[in-house]
Structure formats: structure tokens, C-alpha cells
Amino acid sequence: MSTDQTRLAILAAAERLYADRGFGEVTLRDIVAEAEVNLAAVNYHFGSKDELIAELYVSRSVALNRERLTELKAAEDAGGGPAALDDVIAALVGPPLRGCLGPDRQRSAAARFMVRASAESVPVIRRIRTREIGHLRRFAAALRRALPQAPEADIYWALHFALAMTHETINGAERLQRLSGGACDLDDVAGIVARITAAVVQTLAARATAAKTATVPVRRAARPRA
Amino acid sequence: MSTDQTRLAILAAAERLYADRGFGEVTLRDIVAEAEVNLAAVNYHFGSKDELIAELYVSRSVALNRERLTELKAAEDAGGGPAALDDVIAALVGPPLRGCLGPDRQRSAAARFMVRASAESVPVIRRIRTREIGHLRRFAAALRRALPQAPEADIYWALHFALAMTHETINGAERLQRLSGGACDLDDVAGIVARITAAVVQTLAARATAAKTATVPVRRAARPRA
DNA sequence: GTCTATAGAATGATAGAC
DNA sequence: GTCTATCATTCTATAGAC
Question: Which residues of chain B lie closer than 8 angstroms to A140, CB-CB?
Fold first, then answer.
């Protein structure tokens, strides 16, 4: 109990600092100062800096994916059958978006840490990330149930694009707000989830429709009605 | 001439290494070794590591945006009037995608460097990036001409999502290939440009249509036909 | 388990000879 | 302009007292 206090303080401090400044700008000394513990405590509890990062990443990754899968399961239970397409996407992108842009300050650091971890090239995290894709397979399966006629590739591109929009929205929120002169409301988390979900769903639906009327893959976007 | 040789060798080496390994993993000593020049040459020619990074980023940024705007202008000239929606998006996302995933090895480092620079949190680059958004305003204007009835916010979200999909596709290419078991063809650059373009165009068109029939913003995606 | 003190390696930057 | 040599920091990691 009392022994875990230092451990947890280090993890929380590291998460906060990495989330705020990125991995390249944070040293062990920054972390122990923020945690108000001794420098040697890091190596005592974790062995090395990389092992601290790895443990932090794995634990947060598990928590985030549990949240996503809980939301996915709720959508399946609510409908009785396979979850609707937009609910699947919302379960994937909602947790990080709510965590980062919403008012919940407690989860904020964890969510922003995870997004940074996906964006920056830290060797120890890269190794874990390329291996741990089980949760994405679950979502791929859910999409396939919701849209059985979709080509395999479309399913994966949909997941990929959903995560892409989510990550860039979080990392580039300030820039988008500035570019749009405030026209884009980054505080309206539900609206953002809806935008991302709609974009993915419409694209999947459009390709599924096009596939029925053409033998070649859709390569050129249709012009919108003027 | 001959004096620029060392300068250019340093810039090229730095670009290659940053593109390959990310900013956190490259030191000045790595750069001078790759460039086969002396360590002191960096400070002589650039003053400091940060000034080297800044000059590299600015010069590549100018080149990339010139390429984008040339493509945009070509689309406008070809059509005689405002460029078509999908041509505007293709002009924005085509250059980085072709540079990173295509066969052109020469531009590869430059394009991957730029994508890394947008993903990682390097203070000196962040400062430049949040200021330099002029090229995005040009693209926002082009989108507005192509789709005059679209809400202001939708225009910016479209640009934002287009860049999001582009960057994540480049940075996460390996992971997507692995996840999809090869179903997603990362070598088919034209196909990827078409996918991203289609996603953005369909979303903009769908929202423009919905805006005509509803007074409240679209918040919930339509279910695809089963 | 927690601390002080420090080892040992690497970093960015510079002085001064050529 | 280019080199060698080196400074001053900073980093991660550890040894050993408490």
C-alpha cells in the first residue's frame, strides 16, 4: 500500500509530463521532481527509464481498450444483434476524444499520453504498438458484422482513417482552432465524434454501394451536387 | 558553390536521419557522421542545432507547399473555373503521399521528414507550424469556391481530416499493412489519394445536402443500407 | 524502501590552430 | 572554412549509507 505510493506517483508524474511536453523533452529528473520523489526511486521501482515508459504505456493501453470494448459491447447489447456501424466507430474514437478534449481533467493526461505515444517515434513504444493490435481485430470483426458485404480492405481503411482523424484532432486542436478562427468548436466533443463517425460511415457505405454497380474499385470521388 | 557543399550535406543528412528515426533519436554527432563532415561545421554554418532544424523545416515546407499550390493551380487552369472539390483535396494530400509511399526515392526523405515534423512535438518546429498556415488558407479558399454553400466550419474540418488521414497513413503504414494482413495495398499511391479524397468529398457533400433539409447540424451518421 | 553521492557516458557548443 | 581538442552540461544508472 504505502510502498506503492512512490510507484504510482512516478507513473502519474511521467504520464502528465509526457502528455504535456512529448517524450523528447522530459528527463527522469523532470519526472522525479514532478512526483516529489527521489531520483533513485525510478530505477528501484522500474529498473530503467524504458521499462517505466513500457509499463506506463501498457497499463494505459489496457485501460483505454477496455473502455472501448465496454462501449462496443454496450452497443451490441442495446441493439440485440450486431452493433450499428456508427456505434462501432464511436466506441473506437469516443474514449480518446472525450478523454482529451472533454472536461474530465482526471482522464485527460492518460488520453493525451496515449495519443502522443501513437504519434511520436519512441523505440520502446513502437515495439509494443506494432505487436499489440488485438483490440483493432475486435473492431474489425464488429465492422464486418455490421457491413458483411464490405471488402476486407475497406474495413481496415475505415479503422485506420477513424484513428487518424481522432489523433490529429487531439494533437492539432490548437492549430485547427487558430486556422478556423474559432469556427471549429473543439469543446463540442459529441459533435466531433459525430463528424468522424459520419465521415467513416459515409465512406464505407458509398464504397459498398459503388461495388454493386461497378466491377472495378472506386478510384475517383463523385462530384457533389452543385 | 564549393562552400555550400558542406552546408547542403548537413541539411541532407539531417533530413534523412530525422525522417528515418524521429527527432528524439538523432544527435548532432549522428548527423555529421552521416554527412561526413566535421562536428564544428554545424555550428559554423547554422549557429545551433535548433537553427539547423528550423532552416531545414522552413525550406522543405516552402518546397512542399509550392508543389501543392502548383497542383491546385493546374486543376483550376484545366477546368477553366474553380477547381473541382476532389482536385483541391488531391492537390493537398497527393504530394506528401507520393513523396512518402511512391517509388521516388529522392523526395522520400523530404516528405517523410515533413510528416514527422507534423507528428512529433519539437518546440522549434511547433513554433513555426502554428504560425505558418498561409497555404492552408489558400486551400480553404479553393474549397469555398468549389462548394460555396458549405458552412465555414465544414471547410476547415475537411482540410483537417484530409491532412489527418494523410499523415497517419504515412506514419502508420507498417502497422496498417500488418493489421490488414496485406489487404491494404500501401504501394498503390493513386488508390490511397483517391480513398482520402473520396472520404473528404463525400462527407462535405453529405453535410451540404443534410443542411438543406434540416435546421440543426448533422450530429448522427445515417445508417448505411443493410 | 528511500536517500546521498557519484560514476560513466553522451550531448551541444566553442576556442584556437591551420 | 575546416579541423582537433575540449568545455560545461546533462543524462541514465548505480553503489552504499540509513
Answer: 179
Q: Is the dihedral of CA A202, A204, A205, A209 positive or negative?
A: positive
| C-alpha distances out from residue B51 to B5, B56, B128, Å | 18, 8, 12
Give me the pLDDT at residue B104, please: 74
Q: Is the CB of A47 under 7 A from strand D?
A: yes
- pLDDT band at residue A226 under the 50/70/90 scheme: very low
Nearest to B156 among A176, A197, A217 (CB): A176
| Nearest residue of B to residue A175, measured between CA atoms | B130
Cα separation, B162 vs B138, in Å, equals 15
- Look up cell 507528428; give the residue: B119
Would you state the cell numbers that stand for residue A72, as one nine-digit string? Answer: 462496443
Q: Is B28 exposed, middle or buried (0-12, 13-18, 19+ CB in 10 A)?
A: middle
Is the shortest CB-to-strand distance from B49 to strand C under 7 Å? yes
Q: Which residue has the higher pLDDT, B1 or A68?
A: A68
DSSP B216: S
pTM, entire model: 0.93
Averaged pLDDT of chain B: 92
Find the Å distance, CA of residue B20 to C1' of nucleotide C11. Answer: 20
A128 to chain B nearest CA, in Å? 11
pLDDT at A223 over 80: no
Q: What percent of chain B has pLDDT over 70?
A: 92
Rounded to the nearest angstrom, the minimum Cα separation between B207 and chain A is 9
Model confidence pLDDT, tens digit, residues A30-75: 999 999 999 999 999 999 999 999 999 999 999 999 999 999 999 9
Instruction: Compute the distance between CA of residue B132 and CA of residue A133 in angstroms, rounded to an integer.
Output: 36
Q: Which nucleotide is nearest to B41 (CA to C1')?
A: D2
- What local confidence, expressed as pLDDT, does residue A103 receive? 78
Bases of chain D with protein Cβ within 7 A: 1-6, 10-16
Residue A60: per-residue pLDDT: 97
**Rounded CA–C1' distance between B41 and D3, in angstroms:** 9
